[in-house]
Amino acid sequence: MGTIVCQDCQKVIDYYDEEKVTTIYSTCPTCKSNK
């Protein structure tokens, strides 16, 4: 199970199928629109 986390607000954006437990940092739409 993989997790996509917003690097600005640390909120979980999405989950995806992955054999290992991994975390990818991205930016959620809310934080993107605030910049």
TrEMBL record:
Record protein name field: GapA-binding peptide SR1P
Organism listed in the record: Ornithinibacillus salinisoli
Q: What is the lineage of its organism?
A: Bacteria, Bacillati, Bacillota, Bacilli, Bacillales
InterPro entries, per database record: SR1P
Origin, by domain of life? Bacteria
